Here is the input.
Amino acid sequence: MILRTRDGIPLLGLGTFGRTGPEGLAAILNGLEAGYRHIDTAQSYGTEGNVGEAVRRSGLPRSEVFLTTKIADTNLDSPRALESVERSLETMGLDHVDLLLIHWPSQRDAVPFEDYMGALAEAQERGWARLVGVSNFTIRHLDRTEALLGPGRLATNQVEIHPYLQSRRLVAHARSRGLPLTAYQPLAKGRVAQDPVLAAIGETHGVTAAAVALAFLMAEGHVVIPASSHPGRLRENMAALDLRLSAEETERVRALDRGQRFINPEKSPDWDDR
Here is the structure.
């Protein structure tokens, strides 16, 4: 059974950053073969073409694969935002995506917030995206979005979350609005694999430390989008769907939080947990 959010986003997805060229296409196909039905891409990844091709080659009905892409921060100004969505659809060979995100808010509001959020809403109204959401938005950005578009319009906010960065202020705010978060880098760039706490819990359940981290995040209500090109690790990560941690194990993972952020480029907003 595929676990989903209220809007139908599968809780376990496959990230595609770096999955370019023939090897990247093979990795995405491996994911689909392993059972992943949520594929995450972005204009800035250079993987939209591979994602569309992988879905076609898989033989799966389009309705069975949930596809997410993101408008790059370099394409936020009008009318470039909507034009970029058209190009993304052409690149993927699709007439719509299931979820369209703003990848990063405009740095220092160089592009007016109302302009690019309005373009996101218009893309949905044109039928180019079934759902819309955001990425790397802070509480302040989420409040501005709700004031502009109305409550409940967003399907998710995709942010960095993993056992070492649990973003409790942002999580609490999102929960108060009924907004699921999507955790990118949920395995902390592979660091969870060597974590003794996660490894010990995993040994108890016969799964990997990575599966423990993913199961913890999903139990917290988050969507997770780990990335891997290795067929074995793809299957190992899927074991998280059937893993249930005890209350004591959950508290042990919560205690790993140390506010450690790995993705923090110059264009980053003022994070809520600084």
User: Anything to note?
Assistant: The chain has a mean pLDDT of 97. Residues 14-188+223-229 form a domain with the TIM Barrel fold (CATH 3.20.20.100). DSSP finds ten helices and eight strands in the chain.
